[in-house]
Specification:
The complex is a heterotrimer of chains A (131), B (406) and C (603). Chain A is mainly alpha-helical and 131 residues long. Chain A has helices at 34-54, 62-82, 90-116, 118-121; strands at 23-24, 27-28. In chain B, helix 2 crosses helix 10, helix 3 (77-103) packs antiparallel against helix 4 and helix 4 packs parallel to helix 12. The longest helix of chain B is centred in the N-terminal third of the chain and has 36 residues, at 28-63. The chains are: A mainly alpha (131), B mainly alpha (406), C mainly alpha (603).
């Protein structure tokens, strides 16, 4: 392979690139440290194992909420650290949260509605009144 | 109001010489933050789109929990967990790649993005294996494998195209003649002014004729209303739902409650099992499509990061991926078309790899160019990473909801 | 200098170069390719204008056809092939009228045409944040429209000569596509329609993304959020809805198409599905969609009220906050379209309550506009006439919405002509009139020409009278039970009219008045189109600021140059009209103390 020629200002000073300051037009941009990335990765793997392990325990109706809670925790780690929201403009995080809020409203109202005609669907004789 | 220096009328009348700065932005930082904001807004729209499918899932699972509990046994949760770990790992490599772009670590950037792509391929490969299993066990959706009858109690319900085609064939007509109205016209005359009539007809018929052709709705594998009765598939379906993996159910049913398996479902619920697969295929299919889109975007960024001197082995990745997709198709589809697809797919992938090796060894040298991404410009890597992380996030929610019910 | 035919070939008929010595965005580049591949938001806005107004014409044609059909009630009892074809045709007409109007006209009209043109200019910016995405939005609009054109073409050829087409012909499900009819037995081309709507949805989403990013990032120095023109608040709120609601429409139509083509069984009860779930999905988008239509119109009215009352807006922060409030509340009321589908009383009550709440920010806006007019120096130019018409029609539409939001009355009024009249008052009477306001207001800026006030005002009078004649009787018919979407009707109750000994049959009267009104309305809108077209060839040159407004788009030439401003505008109070004086010889307003005056004097 041909030897790489790199622009002088882009060549890292050391093997790990210390001394390089990521900046756009002079404004410093935060770069996530490898230890943090690996740490978050470890947490995510642990939570995945937890998700599967929790299904061995039966707590009835709460199972789905526990599963969702763990999923929300995983998604939060991905969003905050991998997607850089922790150091970004708060509006970006607001968009994400708003999107989830509206999905929750949509699901909540639809399930509330269909919950109310559930007795009709499980009636002893289909098509008749449930009571 | 003070006088303001007028800018020159030319499009590039700015004092900085950043080639990436568009003319309508004042500073590169404004452009970068705008790009990120735009991408986040777009991710919001993707969340809403998947949210619709999660709503369908929620409504059906809430109303038919038994159906979901039984039907999801056909999913392999080990493969699902492996897929989750694969995607999380690829998220890690992508986030790390963004860091490398920020620090100008070009080789690490390229390798990490390539590993991300490999993770994506791995995910799709495991998905292909899972879809193959479904196909083998005839666990599809809708009219192909549905035992529920139409409200006249006479024939299985089909999709629109299927119905049209069969009616045309039945009438022995060419497409383009007046065939499409034939099946609908006879039903229209009684339906139009006297609306209650059709709904009352089967009931009236049943009441008038107790021994009529309307079958009783009990689902028994092998019974007359089972469309798969007597076929080889039928035995497979029964076996699948009796015990998909040949081992005891993974959860302990509380004492005193009937075990949740197909034999304990009510007849209407047994017929609804395929709704689970409709939801499953739509959700994982749309997610898989987004994986492909994400991989394409990362590949494009990788091409840009490689620059002209790495075209030798980056461009051939395209035919390799075509080959791999055909291979996946071959994995999914059972039956005789499997072997040719696998052979063709693997051949194309190998040919692409060979092309890469030959080109890089014997092709003419391209002088090295200044790398495109560095501490001052890494926006495309950042945006590709955001999209990939979204794909990961959607799977994080899909996995427990589809694979780990109860 | 040769007269390049490129400009003429792209539709600027008779735009003689000799009248324009300065280089502006229309003359900047020549040839059809420079238009189709432009990144200039102004050109994209103009292209949208041509496409969207064509769609309006097509949708309007369907309306005229169905109103003509309704002069005589169809005879359902005559079980002949001709009768069957007639009422099938009627279904196709009202469906395509609704679908074309909603998806191809109402949703894009003000944001894509006026928003694209005006938004960056009001920010003093050179373009939107993502110009390529803007162009992609336009191409997606054209691509999605092709699917609808396919439906029209297949429908016409099938009706005329019995041709058959893959996927079906025409569309007869109603623009609401309710399952299970649309997923199984519908005659129409549901799958092409769903694909077209999916693509049109993405056009809308990308426009929304662009507008949000532009307003966040490209505001000039000094323009804080509360110093933006209210048009931008309205466009921002619209963009929020576009972003959050349209993806759900996308997934809905995908599911519907898959249901129709592959029978996946999500909505069809015969396959274990839930048809009411389709309605939840559909209305979760389609209700916020109507606010996508109305909010930009309200933004236009805010700006116009200020300019033509010569007075700053009354209650700026209330109007701005009400735009956001409408956008957010709009997501919580979709169930009011489904009161009779069997939802539980609790769900019904929740949706009804929130529907009443959403009337409040709308009313706040109306009061603020009236407060702006009060004590102002009102000039009754065409934009102001349409704006006042808007307020009148929107008030009627909004108030009748309360009858529909209230459960007890909605039970009787649903699926009657009351609903038809209500939504035409808010969608056509308000959004279309708002669109007309915007077109007449910004036309001189867009093309540098003034239109004939006489033709425009005549058109307005015909349109306003025609609109009320068409739709007001429908309220009365609806309360007496006249059902909607029916090609046939009885005489209805006999109504006593002075000077006529016997009564008149109500339903016949309502339908015939509507038909006469529809033709009147159509002629009024045709006159509006005439006024615009004639202005391009014969209109006098427009001043930079013909209305004396203070927002930034008026502080550059008419038409603007390619990069909008030849200087960097500084933000001020957008509604501060001090300093602007009328100059009769240019029929424009000038402000010697303004930044623009200093800059243009230097050239």
């Amino acid at each position: 392979m041909a030897a790489e020629q790199q622009h002088p200002t882009l060549t890292p000073a050391g093997a790990e690139g210390h001394g390089i300051d990521p900046n756009i037009g002079g404004k410093h941009i935060h770069s996530t440290s490898p230890m943090l990335l690996l740490g978050v990765y470890g947490i995510l793997v642990f939570l995945t194992i937890l998700t599967v392990a929790v299904t061995k325990v039966d707590v009835g109706d709460f199972n789905i909420w526990i599963a969702l809670a763990i999923a929300v925790a995983k998604a939060s780690f991905v969003a905050l650290y991998f997607m850089h929201l922790r150091w970004d403009s708060p509006f970006n995080g607001a968009i994400l949260i708003f999107a989830f809020v509206f999905v929750a409203i949509f699901i909540g109202m639809s399930v509330m509605d269909s919950h109310n005609y559930r007795p009709f669907m499980h009636a002893p004789t289909p098509g008749t009144a449930p009571y | 109001m003070s006088t303001v220096e007028t800018n020159s009328a030319t499009a590039h009348g700015h004092d900085n010489h950043d080639p990436h700065l568009a003319h309508h932005f004042d500073t590169p930082e404004q452009q970068f933050q705008s790009a990120k904001l735009g991408m986040w807004v777009f991710l919001g729209t993707e969340i809403l789109m998947f949210g619709g499918l999660f709503c369908a899932y929620s409504v059906y699972r809430h109303n038919h929990p038994d159906v979901f509990a039984v039907a999801h046994e056909a999913l392999d949760r080990t493969l699902g967990a492996i897929n989750t770990l694969v995607l999380i790992t690829s998220s890690l490599t992508m986030a790390w790649a963004v860091r490398c772009a920020q620090l100008g670590q070009q080789r690490a950037l390229r390798w990490l993005m390539a590993v991300t792509l490999i993770g994506g391929y791995g995910f799709l490969g495991i998905k292909a294996v899972e879809y193959h299993t479904k196909w083998e066990h005839n666990l599809f959706f809708g009219h192909w494998h549905n035992t529920y009858y139409g409200w006249d109690g006479k024939q299985p319900v089909k999709g629109y195209f299927q119905e049209e085609l069969e009616n045309k064939e039945a009438n022995g007509e060419q497409p383009g003649a007046n065939g499409s109205e034939a099946p609908t016209a006879p039903e229209k005359a009684p339906a139009a002014p006297a609306a209650p009539a059709p709904a009352a007809a089967p009931v009236a018929e049943a009441a008038a004729n107790p021994a009529s052709s309307i079958p009783d709705m009990t689902f028994q594998p092998g019974s007359a209303i089972d469309g798969n009765a007597g076929t080889n598939d039928q035995a497979k379906i029964v076996a699948t739902f009796a015990d998909p993996r040949g081992v005891a159910p993974h959860y302990a049913t509380p004492a005193g409650e009937p075990a949740v398996n197909v034999n304990n479902l009510t007849p209407p619920d047994a017929e609804r099992m395929y709704t689970f697969f409709a939801v499953y295929f739509f959700m994982t299919g749309l997610h898989g499509l987004h994986v492909v889109i994400g991989m394409s975007v990362i590949y494009w960024v990788l091409l840009r990061a490689g620059g002209p001197q790495r075209k030798a082995y980056l461009v051939p990745a395209a035919p390799i991926s075509v080959g791999l997709f055909l291979t996946y198709l071959g994995i999914i589809i059972p039956g005789p078309s499997r072997l040719p697809l696998l052979v063709i797919g693997i051949s194309i992938a190998v040919a692409g790899a060979l092309w890469a090796v030959l080109w890089s060894t014997f092709g003419s040298r391209v002088p090295a160019a200044e790398p495109e991404f560095g501490p001052n410009y890494f926006t495309p890597v950042d945006l590709a990473g955001l999209y990939w992380h979204l794909v990961d996030m959607v799977w994080i929610f899909l996995f427990p909801l589809l694979y780990l019910i109860h | 200098m040769t007269l390049n035919t490129g400009a003429i070939s792209t539709g600027h008929r008779g735009f003689h170069e000799s009248h324009e010595h300065a280089d502006n965005y229309l003359t900047h580049d020549r040839g059809i390719m420079s238009w189709l591949f432009t990144l200039d938001h102004k050109r994209i806005g103009v292209m949208y204008m041509i496409a969207v107004c064509t769609a309006f014409f097509i949708g309007g044609m369907f309306a005229i056809m169905l109103r003509t059909m309704l002069w005589h009630p169809l005879d359902y009892a005559a079980n002949t092939a001709a009768a069957t074809r007639s009422y099938e045709l009627y279904n196709h007409f009202f469906t395509l009228h609704g679908a074309v109007m909603v998806f191809m006209f109402m949703v894009p009209a003000i944001p894509a045409i006026l928003g694209n043109f005006v938004l960056p200019m009001q920010l003093g910016a050179k373009d939107v944040a993502f110009p390529r995405l803007n162009l992609l939005s336009f191409w997606l609009y054209c691509t999605g429209s092709v699917f609808f054109l396919y439906l029209l073409f297949s429908g016409i050829t099938h009706a005329a000569w019995g041709w058959h087409w893959p996927g079906g012909y025409g569309l007869d499900t109603g623009w609401t596509f309710y399952t299970p009819y649309s997923s199984s037995k519908a005659l129409g081309g549901v799958v092409p329609a769903t694909l077209g709507i999916f693509i049109l949805g993405f056009s809308s989403i990308l426009t929304g993304v662009n507008f949000v990013a532009t307003i966040h990032m490209l505001r000039p120095v000094g323009m804080t959020w509360f110093r933006m023109p209210l048009m931008l608040w309205a466009l921002y709120s619209t963009a929020l809805i576009q972003i959050l609601a349209t993806p759900v429409l996308g997934i809905t139509v995908l599911l519907l198409g898959a249901e129709r083509a592959f029978g996946i069984g999500i909505f069809d009860p015969r396959l274990g599905g839930d048809p009411v779930l389709f309605q939840h999905f559909f209305w979760f988008y389609s209700h916020p969609a109507v606010y996508i239509m109305i909010l930009p119109a309200m933004g236009v009215i805010s700006d116009v009220m200020v300019a033509f009352s010569r007075k700053s807006i009354f209650g700026y922060s209330f109007v701005a906050a009400s735009s956001l409030a409408i956008a957010l509340l709009s997501f919580l009321v979709w169930g009011h379209h489904m009161f009779v589908t069997g939802m539980s009383p609790l769900t019904n009550a929740v949706f009804s309550l929130i529907t009443f709440c959403i009337a409040i920010p709308s009313a706040v806006k109306v009061f603020n506009w009236l407060g702006t007019m009060h004590g102002g120096s009102i000039r009754l130019k065409t934009p102001m006439l349409y704006a006042m018409g808007f307020i009148f029609l929107f008030t009627i539409g909004g108030l009748t919405g309360l009858f529909l939001g209230s459960l007890s009355t909605d039970i009787h009024l649903t699926n009657t002509y009351f609903i038809v009249a209500h939504f035409h008052y808010v969608m056509m009477g308000s959004t279309l009139f708002g669109f007309m306001v915007g077109m007449y207001y910004w036309w001189p800026k867009m093309f540098g020409r003034m239109y004939s006030e006489k033709i425009a005002v005549t058109g307005f009078l015909l349109a306003f009278i025609g609109f009320n004649l068409t739709f007001f009787p429908q309220f009365i018919g609806g309360t007496q039970g006249l059902p909607r979407r029916y090609a046939s009707y009885t005489d209805g109750p006999m109504v006593h009219v002075p000077f006529i000994n016997h009564g008149v049959p109500l339903f016949v009267t309502v339908h015939r008045m509507s038909t006469v009104g529809a033709y009147t309305l159509g002629s009024g809108l045709a006159l509006a189109l005439l006024s615009w077209v004639l202005s391009l060839k014969f209109g006098p040159k427009a001043a930079d600021n013909p209305w004396g407004a203070n927002t930034l788009e008026w502080q550059t030439t008419s038409p603007p140059p390619h990069d909008n401003f030849k200087y960097t505008p500084l933000a001020g109070d957008p509604y501060d009209l001090e300093g602007w004086t009328y100059e009769p010889d240019t029929n424009g307003w000038v402000n010697p103390a303004s930044q623009w005056a200093t800059v243009s004097a230097a050239h």
